[in-house]
Amino acid sequence: xxxxxxxxxxxxxxxxxxxxxxxxxxxxxxxxxxxxxxxxxxxxxxxxxxxxxxxxxxxxxxxxxxxxxxxxxxxxxxxxxxxxxxxxxxxxxxxxxxxxxxxxxxxxxxxxxxxxxxxxxxxxxxxxxxxxxxxxxxxxxxxxxxxxxxxxxxxxxxxxxxxxxxxxxxxxxxxxxxxxxxxxxxxxxxxxxxxxxxxxxx
Length: 202
Prior knowledge:
This protein is mainly beta. Helix content is 9%, strand content 37%.
């Protein structure tokens, strides 16, 4: 599943500024590893789904790289493998829209449009480096991604840690909620992404 935009819009591009979140207005187009604990109790093992669940969220994303740091507010709507994200002020280019329709990833702002076959390729074109953006739709819903090599749960059987390649993700929860309200994603080369998550009603 490929929804990987916020990081697309923020990772490695040095010009992020704080911005106002804007509601996405239905812009979506029609788009293995072994658990390390409680293997014998299936109900305590997070499900690895092959298709991200639908969600509608907003919040703030912060990025730290070896050379700069920045943040932005976002609105993200996910429907299956399709997504739409809006950022305001990203890249010092006014409103930025990022979308994926299952076949083409698109980034649009006042400077123009950039296309790629998938979000990872779009990120490579825009920033010159890679990030685990395909995993975000799963992690946002508190699920291990299909390609995660390792993950752990907390005492409440909620996903607390996931590893994908050299990237590691830590999950924070508000009180007894079952879905995370904060993700902290780190890479040993000095990249860090912090995503705060507010769940919106459909």
